[in-house]
DNA sequence: GAGGAAATGGAGGTGGAGTTCCGGTTTCGC
DNA sequence: GCGAAACCGGAACTCCACCTCCATTTCCTC
C-alpha cells in the first residue's frame, strides 16, 4: 500500500512546466480569469498540448497560480506578526496583502468567488494568521471591536476588484486602502457597525 | 431631412418589450453579465427571437438595464442634494447609491469596466451631482479635502464587487460602507492620501 | 549509442453561448 | 372582416474557447 513516489520530471518537462507557470501568471494577471489557454501557451513559447500535459484543466492552472499568490499573502501576514505594535502589524499585513491583490486581476477574481479551489490547510493557516492580527489590534484598542474576521477579505477583495478596472491609475488602491484603514480605527468609529 | 418619428410599437410588442426587460433585470441581477440570453427569454416567457427583436445584441440589452439603474442612482443623488447638512447629504447619496449597486450583480460589473456603454449626458449629470455633493462636504470641513471625484466610484464599485460574492451575507455591504464613510471624515484622516 | 519511455506541438474535435432566419401568428388601419 | 405589415418563436447556424489525440522529437537508462 505504499504510495509510489512520483518519478522526477524529465529535464525538459521541468523547464516547460516553469515556463507555463510564468506565462500563465503574466497572462492571467493582465486579462483575468477569462484569458485564453492559447495565449498562455503562446506567451510561454509552448504548444497548448504541453500546457494541458502539466495542468489537466484551465481551472487547475488557475488554481496553481492562486495557491502561489495565496502563499505570498500568508507569508506577508506572518512577517507582519513579528511587528510588536499591534496596529502597525495589522496595517502592515493589509498593505502587503492588498499589494499582491492589486497586481493580479485573476487572483482577485478568484478570491471573490464562493468556492476556493485550494487545499483547506492553506486557508486555515491564513485564517489563523489574520485572526491573531485582528485580535491583537482589537485588544490594544486600536481596531474597532465590532470588526469580524470575515470583514477583512471583504475589504481587500473590494479594493482588488475596484482596482483592476483597466482605465484606472495603478496607484489608486493605495488611496482606497488608506481610507479603509482610517475607517477601521476604533477612535474613528461614528457608531456601531450594522448587524 | 426630418427624422421620421418612429411609429409606436404594436400592443403585443410593447408588452413583450417590458417582459424582456423585467426578465433580463432579474436574470442579470442574479447571475451577472454572463447570464445567458436563453435564460432571459425563458424568464420573460418569450422566445429568443423576440429578445433579439427588441435588443439587437446582448450588449444592448445589458446597456439598457444599466442606464435604467444609473438613472436610479442619479435620482437618489439629486434627492440627497436637497438635504441641508452637507455631510448628511453626501452620506445619504452614498447609502442610496450603494444599495442599488449591491442589489445587482451585472450593474456592478458594468460600472467596473473601462468603457461605459451609455450616452454621455447621463454620465455628465451624474458627475455634476456628485461633484456638488463632494464639494459641499469638503467646504463644510466634513469630508477630507484630498478626496477627488474619481475616488467615489472606486469605493462604491469596490463595495458592489465585494458584495456580489454569492456566499456573502446580503447585508455585509452596510458594514463595508460604514467603514469607508468613517474613513472619509476629515477629522479621521491619519495622514494625506497617497499621490 | 540504442532502445524505449516521456514529453511535445498544434491541427482538429467538442460543446456551449450568441445570433440569425423564416414559417406561422397577432395586431392595426381601412 | 380583410389584407398587409409587424411581430413571435425556436430550431438551426456560427463562432470561439477548451480540450484531445497522435505523429514526432527529446531525454534518460543501460
TrEMBL record, chains A, B:
Coiled coil: none annotated. The keyword Ribosomal protein does not apply. Residues 14-73 form the HTH tetR-type domain. The keyword Transcription applies. It holds the Pfam family TetR_C_43. Keywords: DNA-binding, Transcription, Transcription regulation. Residues 36-55 bind DNA. SUPFAM superfamilies: Homeodomain-like, Tetracyclin repressor-like, C-terminal domain. This is TetR/AcrR family transcriptional regulator. It comes from Solirubrobacter deserti.
Amino acid at each position: 500500500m505504499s504510495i509510489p513516489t512520483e518519478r522526477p520530471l524529465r529535464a525538459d518537462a521541468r523547464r516547460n512546466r516553469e515556463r507555463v507557470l510564468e506565462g500563465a501568471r503574466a497572462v492571467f494577471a493582465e486579462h483575468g480569469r477569462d484569458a485564453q489557454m492559447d495565449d498562455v501557451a503562446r506567451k510561454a513559447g509552448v504548444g497548448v498540448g504541453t500546457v494541458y500535459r502539466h495542468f489537466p484543466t484551465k481551472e487547475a492552472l488557475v488554481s496553481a497560480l492562486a495557491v502561489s499568490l495565496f502563499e505570498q499573502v500568508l507569508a506577508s501576514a506572518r512577517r507582519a506578526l513579528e511587528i510588536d505594535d499591534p496596529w502597525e502589524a495589522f496595517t502592515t499585513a493589509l498593505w502587503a496583502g492588498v499589494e499582491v491583490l492589486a497586481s493580479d486581476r485573476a487572483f482577485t477574481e478568484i478570491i471573490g468567488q464562493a468556492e476556493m479551489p485550494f487545499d483547506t490547510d492553506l486557508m486555515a493557516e491564513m485564517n489563523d494568521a489574520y485572526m491573531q492580527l485582528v485580535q491583537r489590534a482589537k485588544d490594544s484598542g486600536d481596531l474597532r471591536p465590532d470588526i469580524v474576521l470575515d470583514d477583512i477579505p471583504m475589504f481587500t477583495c473590494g479594493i482588488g476588484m475596484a482596482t483592476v478596472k483597466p482605465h484606472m491609475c495603478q496607484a489608486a488602491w493605495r488611496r482606497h486602502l488608506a481610507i479603509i484603514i482610517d475607517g477601521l480605527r476604533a477612535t474613528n468609529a461614528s457608531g456601531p457597525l450594522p448587524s
